[in-house]
Amino acid sequence: xxxxxxxxxxxxxxxxxxxxxxxxxxxxxxxxxxxxxxxxxxxxxxxxxxxxxxxxxxxxxxxxxxxxxxxxxxxxxxxxxxxxxxxxxxxxxxxxxxxxxxxxxxxxxxxxxxxxxxxxxxxxxxxxxxxxxxxxxxxxxxxxxxxxxxxxxxxxxxxxxxxxxxxxxxxxxxxxxxxxxxxxxxxxxxxxxxxxxxxxxxxxxxxxxxxxxxxxxxxxxxxxxxxxxxxxxxxxxxxxxxxxxxxxxxxxxxxxxxxxxxxxxxxxxxxxxxxxxxxxxxxxxxxxxxxxxxxxxxxxxxxxxxxxxxxxxxxxxxxxxxxxxx
Length: 326
Known about the structure:
Elements: E1 2-6, H1 11-19, E2 26-31, H2 35-45, E3 49-51, H3 54-58, E4 65-68, H4 75-84, E5 89-92, H5 99-112, E6 116-119, H6 126-136, E7 143-151, H7 158-161, H8 169-185, E8 189-198, E9 204-213, E10 218-224, E11 233-237, E12 240-245, E13 252-258, E14 266-273, H9 282-293, H10 304-320, E15 322-325
Parallel strand pairs: 1-2, 1-4, 2-3, 4-5, 5-6, 7-10, 8-15
Antiparallel strand pairs: 7-11, 8-9, 9-10, 11-12, 12-13, 13-14
Helix pairs in contact: 4-5, 5-10
């Protein structure tokens, strides 16, 4: 299957690495707003050709799937261009700026029966199934609380601090704790309480979110661009808990349980190291290619309904949070 890159991004280099190991994928062509950059990208990563514009790429009949990794603020127009030219599309997270844009793109996808998927890699990774199997085994008991954090010192990056580029911590980084909670607990939350911290750039730099579920479970989610965190996810149960090292790219799952029946103290019972076929980005393409071959218009691991629920929660956080300005 011939893959076209709409946007010659830094993350695209990792995608190239994953696709070179995929016998069903061909690095066919790439396009950037600057055709010289596209030509350099082609030479560096081994694409068959480059294009002088996005339109030229999506009008090439040889392209079977377009991977979009442009600025989040551009996703709506870029994905719409792909769909209107009958190109299946895998678009980087965050899917769009808001749920209204997402709904419109999904509507076009369904009308044309074209594949459209969100490329948030943790949804497709083997670690997701491993975590859910451990929980289903009952080893940690009934879940009553979850916490997840993801923070990096990235408040000097223009795309993060420029509102016109889709800046702010939620869309770029905060989506990972949100998706971690949804993958484990589902989307049937009852209430959300959140705070957003604004400091210097006119965008939210820190996000604090509490999701209260109908079954009494609470999820505490944190992200910031002002410093580095341990990036861990914790899933607490009545008999023990799981620690997931790095929710952005899980490396290891640690299982903790009671030392004995008479103590509340916990000890490490087991640790599961997570390995990947290449670098973790390959799984979303495995699924996209299979879906297109099967004439399915959405991924199993990240169906349109889930993308919309994530976007609607982000809308709610942005519109109803307690705001703190410095």
